[in-house]
Amino acid sequence: MPLRAKKRAKAGYMISAVAELYKLHPQTLRLYERVGLLKPSRSQGNTRLYTDSDLERLEVILTLARDMGVNLAGIEIILNMREKMIEMERQMSEFAQVVQQELSRVAASYAQEKPSRNAIVRATPRIVR
User: Fold this and answer.
1) Domains along the chain?
2) Helix, strand or coil for residue 64?
């Protein structure tokens, strides 16, 4: 991860700024945290700090709630399934990479074998009477 991205991910937005930005009451953000939809980090003074990834997750939550009318229980299920799908995609990508490496290895070892084994030999047809 580039250094700039690490710094940006650690930057935190206070609850009042996030509430104003998304036109929410701070209690709504506290509710989302209480039910486990959001998990903001805390400062040394115990102030909630929302990272860029928290805000991305909040945008998904708000889209589901405001635009699609999904309740909190449904949002939780959707977010959990979304996380599982992302993890499955990562695992499938890793598996595909391993298969590709193995195919490349087998192809390379096959190409290094003696040419006589790979040669095509002409055979004369048999005549059956």
Assistant:
1) 3-85 (1.10.1660.10)
2) helix
